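Note to self: the last two entries modelled the partners one at a time, which told us nothing about the interface. This time every component goes in together.
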Amino acid sequence: EEPHGAAPVDFLQELPSCQSARRRRGGTQERRPALLGTTGSRGAAARALPQERGGPPDRPARERPECMAEKRRTRDSQQVDTEHLSRWEKWRRTSSKSLKKALSEVKGLSSYLVLWRHDIRSIEGKFGTGIQSYFSFLRFLVLLNFIIFILMFSFVTLPTIISKYGIFNSTIAYISPKNIDNICTIYEPNGNKGLVYFYTYLKDLLSGTGFLEVTSLFYGYYLIDAVWISIMRYNLPLAYLLATFAYLALSFLWIIKRSVEGFKHNLVHDADPFQSYCNKVFAGWDFGITDPNAARLKHRSLQYELQTDLQEEKQKQKIAERSMEEKLRIYSLRILINIIVIAILSGCFYSIYRVTVFSQESSNDVDNANSQVNLLVQYLPSIVITSANFIGPLIFSFLITFEDYTPAFEIKLTLLRCVFVRLANIGVLLFSLWSQISNCGSDKCKPCGYNYKLYPCWESDVGQEMYKLMIFDFIVILAVALFVDFPRKLLVTHCSWKLVQRFGHKEFEISDNVLEIIYGQTICWIGTFFSPLLPAIATIKYFIIFYVKKIVLIHTRKPAARPIRASSSNFFFLVVLLIGLLLAFVPLGVSIARIPSSKACGPFRNFNTSWEVIPDTVLQFPTGLQQILFSMTSEAFAVPFFVILCIIMFYVIALARAHKRVVEQLREQLVLASRDKMFLIRKIAETQRN
Amino acid sequence: GAMGGSASLIPRDLLGEYQELTFLSKQEILLAYKRFSELLPKEERENAWSARVPKSQILTLPELRANPFQHRICHVFSTSETRDDSMSFEDFLDMLSVFSDSATSDIKSHYAFRIFDFDDDGTLDRKDLEQLVNCLTGQGEESRLSSTEMEQLIQNILEESDIDKDGTINLAEFQHVVSRSPDF
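The predicted structure of the combined assembly is written out below.
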């Protein structure tokens, strides 16, 4: 053993590697030059960190871990060094420095333009980065929706409005439909002309019928084949379709960019980065907390987190030691519970289907029979979906306690199931709508390809359903905040019964709130094709929700028992948002490419399906370009392209595996080298003693 | 208003130098000057340059008040020759620069290592880690982990970060493990 504990540290200074590192530093001294001579602990500390001093000589002064006086000296010595460089070098350096300065000024100014910068910072200070990530996510969605709205408005709505009012000498070109049965083109939305009750206006506002149906909010308004602005011909159908693709692509790229920024993926090392103890301990404290209460809460949550993790580890060991019959019992229990979950989901989906069919049938059969009941029937699908979204997660979190998973896996699985319920509900609603629209029994759709009697303008109907979903979602969020959270808080503060105190406190469940807004965003993505002004409504909705949630948070908060960390939550939100976006592709793809577009309204009435605008336009290109485009979409091109992609992917995977092997070998070498070092030090200490 | 007043107290070249040597912007440096001079008693506010603020005053800042590492932070950033952890304005700027958003993760991890190294011996050994965990879970007897839990935790940490298996974490290992840490 070593003679005394301090020996290794002192001897470490004498090692050749430390000596050479110190010589390489040259003139730069350590942080406390006055203490160099002392052998106190600070001196040892100053000397014991040899290898990170200095660094490559052209590291700018501010990136060095030294005190201000040292950095000044470094910068002066750097300047002395540069004086003997050529004039070109000097000019290059000064210009790059002034460019960096200008860029930092611009960055400083543009940080003032960031929306809600101050609000989010104060939330971070009081509640930590986990909850702050929810609010920055909300801000991201507001911006995304705003940009989508600008896109659709400027390329679709603006030309239509310009041409309808004849500004800039613009006219509309109507191309008479060829070989389409006249019966398909009958479409008479009643725009509520004449005296009607005020109540009818309210009903129309809430359900998108009546006077709203004929506005630019819905697809039916855009009954235009081309717009002539002076001498330019603006192909509105093509613009409509391309704007749709553009906003989908924009959302996709922006989400991917954001998720790459926030996530450090480790391909080489197997450890799960979110569960790692080092991450929790070294990066555990949130240095942005300024409030002592928040600090106390953070201490408690850290303690709880560490203790739960340690318990989980013990539990994992126990699980690994399970006997065969216990395993059998648990697996059969899990299968049973999964069957129950699937049964519940099917029940959900079936009820949504039946309710949608019922709602559509009754709104088509009886017009204005009983206004109040009619409004309720219109909103029935939204009500059922929202209750399913609410009850589902409760049932899942109850059932999962029987499945005996580790706590971390429990949370993940419950979240996954909730996500699935929310997104699949929308899918089922759309599916039932389409089954109604393409309800072709007994030749109802022979002339036009869809059920033209009930749905002369089916895209507007789908748009109305999406509109209703969005409005109802917004109303529910406001109502829950107003009628559930605040009374709860009042009850808890003024009534001290044990029962109330235990169940009354409401935690700010980040994951639930996030799933809520992702659900709203998926509706917006699907609905924008059928209702181009929907993103504007979504922007306003999220804008208001930000303030509502902020007020609810400040007044009624209790910290979540199991905190979600900022980094993992950011990535999780973006992954679920991406799933929502990919799910939105499916109904849009089916609507655009498979279901025939309505012949009575909208820009696509001269085409079989909405997609056909593109092949039509391509056929009008010069033949050379046409050849190129056709060859790119043919099999002769696609198959080799796919094969090359596969080869590249395999190469990259093989490279990653090779790197992993090298890293493992280097680790072993480091362990051996350190053991050699200890052995040599012991030998030196022995020989010194003798 | 107040910002304009303090701007005239910092000569322009010094301001430019601070911008060059730290990661702070001009507004942030001026704000720092204002906060720093508020910590001084009124008579000393004129020479905020050479003044040193005692540790007790620094700890009244709201950002440090709630921080369990407050003493270590003052200790690490202070260049006081009398070892009383008092901070000058330049130390204060250094501290703000390292904690700002634009500082490189290299610098942050270097200073984090110094802050976590409670006994200043250049490595994080078991005692350092124990003190670190106790700081995280809070003061007070009921908020500490039991000794078995602490043992298990420290064992896990060393397993994950000690590459050369010498029972301590040196700066290179610390920087390596922190670079893969998404929350840092």
